[in-house]
Amino acid sequence: MFEFKFADIGEGIHQGKVLDCFFKIGDMVEEGESLFLVETDKVNAEIPSPAKGIITAINFEINDIINVGDVVVVIDDGSSAEVIETITEEKEKAEAETEEGKGASVVGEVTVSNELIPGFHTEEKEEKVIRRKSLATPIARRMAKDLEVDINEVEGSGLNGRVMKEDIQKFHNLNNKAETTKSVVLENGDDIREEMSLVRKAIFKTVSISKKEIPHTTLFDDIDLEQLVKLRGELSEEIGVKLTYMPFIMKAVYLGIKKYPVFNSTIDGEEIVYKKQVNLGVAVDTDYGLVVPVLKDLSSLSIIEISEKLKGLSSRARDKKLSMEDITGGTFTVSNFGKFAKAGTPIIKHPEVAVLGIGRVKKQAVIIDSEIQIRSILPVSLSVDHRIIDGADGGRFIEEVRSYLENPKLLLLS
């Protein structure tokens, strides 16, 4: 018997929420085949089986919270013929009782596997595997039926193209003019208590640590983007793709950090640790909370390459498809709240030492050479850890970033 324990699938993950399962008691599973889908405070991940055998026990239900170290499933590796015979009988009974796919999920240690799921040796099992791979999870099928969605028209995002319930919901939303939104009705003025999601709990913890341990000081300034507006338009027309300001800002921040490396450091006791590689996190607002995917090593990336990578990270973030590689290793964060506000005071993401806030670009009247001109102005706010970065250092960093954004052709040469 193999006792399968839920393991930390990333940096400091302690628990997860089971969203879906692909097997039930009595099913045969191959090593590397996905057992279940788990949501953590960082990513959603399909958990593969570490062993081949028959599932003899499942220790939780869908939507249960599981903790690292919990024995969540037991797999019979075939060492006991008596047990296998018993499980075969239980399997036949379970199949009849769980036609609707209700039941528990399976979790365990995570290994990355891109291999196709091997087939089983009997015709019955082979047919089951093909059906599982080519169609969808039981929950997805039920949801498709309830929403009257043709599952054959839905592109699957799971392992080997498996259709997940998120795929059904996304397809349904896109094909309906108005998305339904959940609302809460307060009856008789009663208060409502709602448990925080895992993502919100993670934000709660991170922000609390940052404000408690890091003495913030924030500098505000405006940057003239008039030349960048023109260059962005020219490049967008040239390549046939609409560019945002973010790739230019990220490149300017990278160059600013290269000149002032203290902004790419962390504190270890009474020592400053300067990070060799510049990995810029970019805050992304999603339906399930704020996440910060990381753009790794900008040293060799062009503006267009940065744009493509940012689009990929943002898309995966909103679709809950970020990998651990996507969200770890950040050394400095850029938070763009321009869609929602003119300016703000960003909170440093511990253990980083600085964060740059990007506000809303607006046309403003400014005085240039004693004349009033209308220019495109970008408000920025830089929060720094005052233990190792002084206000003057922050001012010099902003000036370096400004020098590139106000002369954007320099970004194309860097």
TrEMBL record:
Question: A Pfam family in this protein?
Answer: 2-oxoacid_dh
**Coiled-coil features, chain-numbered ranges:** none
Q: Does the keyword Aminoacyl-tRNA synthetase apply?
A: no
Domain Lipoyl-binding stretches: 1-76
Query: Where does the Peripheral subunit-binding (PSBD) domain start and stop, copy by copy?
Result: 135-172
Mind listing the UniProt keywords for this protein, alphabetically? Acyltransferase, Lipoyl, Transferase
Q: What class of enzyme is it?
A: transferase
Cofactor(s) named in the record:
(R)-lipoate
Q: What is its EC number?
A: 2.3.1.-
Q: Please state which protein family the record places this protein in.
A: Belongs to the 2-oxoacid dehydrogenase family.
What protein is this chain from?
Answer: Dihydrolipoamide acetyltransferase component of pyruvate dehydrogenase complex
